[in-house]
Each structure stands twice: as structure tokens, then as C-alpha cells.
Specification:
Blueprint: E1 4-8, H1 12-24, E2 42-48, E3 53-60, E4 75-79, H2 83-95, E5 99-106, E6 115-120, E7 126-131
Parallel strand pairs: 1-3, 4-7
Antiparallel strand pairs: 2-3, 5-6, 6-7
Helix pairs in contact: 1-2
Length: 140
């Protein structure tokens, strides 16, 4: 359904450091954009053949030149493969300038297997990591 999601930032270098740490916990890497004009933009996910194949999250300053701001009710949720990835996502956010919007845990109001953590990035964008398929912590 999506080709990309774009979030605004007022400090692209700070946002890049935050998302490198955050999305690294979920196995995501930066998009390779060599040969394209992406000044001020940083992306994670898939970006191939100059965007012919793309599924990515991009961070950039707003095009209109005004300060980036958050949307009330707007959130981007990332898929995690394990509860440990959700925990690491939450810890990385807090360690790199983000804030907690909901500690890792089961959210029974959604489903008995809905393990999630909610954070805000340094610009205030709300993010989540969600793992489905388990109703208790898997045995290591």
C-alpha cells in the first residue's frame, strides 16, 4: 500500500543519528541514494533503481521552509521480529534523545499477542515497535 513515509525534522543530522540507532535495533539500514539529489534527506528501508522499488521512511526539513511539527494522532509503527527487538527499540530511543510514550509490554486492548513500545523522536514524531505472534516472552 505504501511506497514511503516522510517525517519532518528541524535537525537532519540529529534525526539521522537517532534513527540509525533506533531502526538498527529492527535490522533496518539507511537507503543508498548515490547518484540522486537527496540533500537534507535521510531514509531507511528499501530504495532501489532511483525509487522504482521503494519502501522507506524518510526524514527531511519541510519543503515550505517552516519548522517541522507533529500531527496529533499521527504515528508510524514498525514491525519487530521479537519482544527483544521491541525492548531494544524503546531503549535506543531513550538513549538517543527520544521520550517514552508507553513502555514495552502486552497491549491487551488490541490483542493478547500485541507487544509494543511507544516513543517520540527528538522532533516529537510518535513511533511504535510492534511484535505479534507471542503471548508470553519466548524462552531463550
Amino acid at each position: 500500500m505504501f511506497t514511503y513515509i516522510c517525517l519532518g525534522t528541524n535537525d537532519p543530522p540529529r534525526a539521522a543519528r537517532f534513527y540509525d540507532a533506533l531502526l538498527g535495533t529492527l535490522g533496518q539500514r539507511r537507503c543508498e541514494v548515490s547518484g540522486d539529489d537527496w540533500e537534507g534527506w535521510t531514509g531507511w528501508g528499501t530504495y532501489e533503481r532511483h525509487g522504482e522499488r521503494e519502501l522507506a521512511l524518510w526524514l527531511c526539513p519541510p519543503w515550505d521552509g517552516r519548522p517541522a511539527s507533529v500531527g496529533n494522532g499521527t504515528m508510524v509503527a514498525f514491525s519487530a521480529r521479537s519482544w527483544s527487538e521491541v525492548d531494544a527499540f524503546h531503549a535506543a530511543a531513550l538513549a538517543h534523545g527520544g521520550s517514552c510514550e508507553g513502555a514495552p509490554g502486552i497491549r491487551l486492548r488490541y490483542n493478547p499477542d500485541f507487544y509494543a513500545a511507544y516513543v517520540r523522536d527528538p522532533d516529537g514524531n510518535k513511533l511504535a515497535a510492534v511484535c505479534r505472534g507471542f503471548t508470553q516472552r519466548p524462552v531463550a
